[in-house]
Design a protein that fits this description.
There is one protein chain. By secondary structure, this protein is α+β, with helices and mostly antiparallel strands. Helices cover 18% and strands 32% of the residues. It has an eleven-stranded mixed β-sheet with strand order 1-8-9-10-11-20-17-16-13-14-30, covered by helices on one side. It binds zinc ion (ZN). Zinc ion binds next to loops. The site of zinc ion has 8 residues, from loops.
Amino acid sequence: MKLKVNKLLIPTNKIKMKTHKAGICYLFLLSFMIYASSCGGNKTGDQNVYVENGKIALGFDKQTGSLSCLKDITNSFSLLDTNLIPGSPWELEFMNSSGTGIINSDNAAKFRFSKPDPLTIILKWKNFSYTEKKDLEVVATINLDKDKPLSFWKISVNNLEGKSIKQVIFPRIAGLKDTGEEYLAVPQWMGQIMKDPRINLSALKSNVKRYSWTYPGLSLQCLALYNSEKNGLYAACNDSMAYIKNFSFSLDTLNSLVYRMHNLPSVDSLRTSYEPPYTGVIGTFKGDWITAAEIYREWGSQQRWTRESRFKNQITPDWLENTALWVWNRSKSGNVLVPAMDMKQRLGLPVSVFWHWWHGCSYDDEFPEYVPPREGKESFISAVSAANKEGIRAIVYMNQRLWGTTTESWTKDNAAVYALKNPDGKINTHVYNIFSNRPTASMCMGTQFWKDKYASLCDSAVNTYTANGVYMDQACQAMPCYDPTHGHPVGPGNYWVENFGKLTKQIRSKITQDKQLILAGEGCGEAWLPYLDLFLTLDISKERYAGLGPWRTIPFFQAVYHQYSITYGNYSSLLVPPYDELWPKEYAPKKPLEMLSKDFNQQFLMEQARSFVWGMQPTIANYQAFLSRDRKEEIDFLLNLARIRNQAVKYLLYGKFMRSPQIESPEKEFGISRLSIYAGKTGNSVTAFRGTFPLLYSGTWQADDKDLGIALVSISDDPVEVSFKFSSDDYELPPAGKIFIIDKKGKRELTSFSNKEIKVDFTLNPKDICMLEVTSGN
Ligand SMILES: [Zn+2]
């Protein structure tokens, strides 16, 4: 994993509160309707023009086109603060000789609107005071869903006269009302949630109080800002072609919250107009991030990427689906495959291996000189063969975009020509290896040269060195390349993921079916569902790489796409992470394979519990056989967890994410290790914290046959009372049936239910793991 995410350039804050100006207003009213209930405040309906569908209402200032109303009609809730002057629904940033310039609806002398039908409003701005763009025209078309509280926002910018646009911000929803107990949920990788985003934003040290995320990188296109008791903003996009774009929330100068979607055209000096080939989606909802995920899932599960999902179409090899546990180890086979064989004997179920540092080059600075393996060809091949005989498969690490610029091959292969270029034309380099300080360059996925190079590396790894698959580091992101000689659109676009698809096709074309190849990738992303068999979602161990910040990991991606994807991985380790033997000796830890303090044992259990209840394939990082003796309790917990999961794959591998019933959980403060990728230190960084976390974890899954599985894990040292009830209607269950428990004693009936009333009361023993199965059958 690489912690650096290459961000697109975001403009500096150019927010200004509107000063009311006298614009010339031309009214073209094909139909005219004043939304009966004003959107809040003391306005009369006359100032605004509305569209509404009985669920959601939008209002725009008739003089200026500013967004004056966003209302959830069902819950009678206005999302905008009516004490603020309405804001422009768009912003346009140009690139010009003096840098950049931003305009919005305030800069237009002419505004007119029309309503071609009751659910559609067209807004047009012209005659911009921005002198260079006299004929510029901005047209926004906002269309409401027939039945749902959703609106679809389309924009086109016309008469550009060859002027370059850096970004078109649309929709822009300014003046979002503070609803008190607020949460912001964002699908950054798996997903994350923050309480009180306004307080956290205002505490940022930078002048610009903004959180911004790039998609892809976000695993899907839906953000939610809500107070679950009151109402929420559903901010999404229905781009099924995965164009690069940004989403942001920021505080403006009056401390009011603004949502923006940043559309990023590619660089084209001949362009006369720009219209993103998708629409922004703005909706309202009452509920929480799961409610928002359910709304998005309705759309996402109908897209090409779910229809072509490798997992859903059963193209993924059986050995992947049968994997009960991953061992993620590093270095030569003796340190990787031998411990995995030990684990397999103890578990008695299929174990697979996620293998780093197998390669001849040193990690993070000498890519892509992977072959031959560091232990030599013969040793490597015979070790893989021995492991395969035991039923253990191994996937090997190869970064899908980095090339060390100090390597011999960089010069010899003339790689610089095919490297990704920044807007200034320079090669995009980054130093990941803080020990050697040797940079790597990102290669351009849009070039055939790089696809050929990477496909030939996969060919070697699988066909020559007999690996069972390849883990493609830094996948599920897209990067804009500004090299005009590469044959792709210059700058942002959707060619990265398109070319990633071509790359995986090329890799698979060279590897025969009997090899049962799998391709895994870092992170997760909806657009990669047709290309990757497996997704590494390390957010499960967020505390180990990000410490204790305001963001908490949530299974947003799994909530939307679990039945279309297999996720795995964590940094869950009982040992101090290793140090590459090929790195500078002076930073190496004195004692390799040193045990982590027992203070962090509960963190290990927490990570395993999360991955179990959130439907991931379990993983242990840095496993060694002596741990089963020296950390028996933790290893026994993991073995138990993998065995119970193996009896519940109907839910935990194939099931659909459901909201869990309300279950009380005790909390406790415990130690948190902040050592993730490698040991070795160059300074005195803080490596431990204490944090308070739940001791009981739950996750609820619906099987294809509509049976319901409720996964429960206690990481407590004391017994935990589990008590909850719900109606069978909540989960499409029959009014009567049985509840079974699957735990280390096997499967047995726990209780039964009738009259739609499901009631569960039992005690989980310390560190117990179980699956409750609610079913009409036996
Ligand atoms: Zn390129």
